[in-house]
Amino acid sequence: MKKWKIGLLGAVAMSAVMLVPVFLAGATPSVNAADMSDAGQTTPSEPLAAANPDYIAFQIGNRYGVKDHARYPLKSDVKPFIDSTGSVQVPLQETAEGIGLEVTWDAATNIATLSDGKKTATLTAGISQMTVEEEIIDLPSAPVVQDGNTYIPARAMANIGGWTLEFLSADKGSYMIFKADENYQAAGEVTQLLGASTEQYLAGGLIFRSGSDKAIARGSHISFSGMTTFDENDSIYFPLEECVTAMGGTVQTANGEVTVTLGEREALLNINDKTARVDRQPTASEYFAFEEKDSVVYVSADLLAALLGMNKTVLGEGVIAFTVAALDGYPDQEEAITALGEALAGGTAAASLSGIPEAEHYVALTFDDGPTGQSEGLTARLLNALNERGAHATFFMCGYRVKDFHAVLDRYLPEGHEMGNHTMDHKNLTKQSTEGIHEQVDGNSELIESYADAKPTVMRPTGGAYNDTVKAEMKKSGLPLILWSLDTLDWKSKDAKSVENKIVNNVQDGDIILMHDLYESTYKGVLNAIDKLQEQGYAFVTVSELAAIRGITLEPGEVYSSFPPN
Ligand code: NI
Question: If you measure from the C-alpha of residue 501 to the centroid of ligand 1, how many angstroms do you get, rounded to a whole number?
Answer without folding.
Answer: 21
